[in-house]
């Protein structure tokens, strides 16, 4: 018997009172805080979209002929985090890519070890990026040390990347088990 209490708003992903994206904090202020908060929320939203699925469900290509799967998106976003933070911001250009071209999607197979490795890579890269961006030595998001690219460009690109893929995740998840999200 399911012991999960009924939700107040069954049409929503989670009840507003239980939504971990809204910790009851006042709104962020300032460009840096706002952009980092949007990125945090989108990362958490993406993680919530994949919650509770097994390897077969995560690897399922739910919208043929597309190669998109939730597992592929997870691997892709781990690669995106890795590339932008380590290779672009930290200028570690000799560091190999996390996944070779298209391997993030093509290698997304229904295997528990592949799923565990994808979650580990994504969480590792997100944690690393959060540390790097939090420790950046400038208050605005201007030119980062050693580069010609402004940190705001990187962070806004990451927000855009997560926003787009959260939309994909909504559609893929709905095809898997009918859940739709806010």
TrEMBL record:
SUPFAM superfamilies: DinB/YfiT-like putative metalloenzymes (SSF109854)
Bias (Basic and acidic residues): 8-29
Pfam families assigned to the protein according to its UniProt record, in alphabetical order: MST (PF04978)
Start and end residues of each stretch annotated as Disordered: 1-29
Taxonomy, superkingdom: Bacteria
Protein name: DinB family protein
Provenance organism: Nocardioides marinquilinus
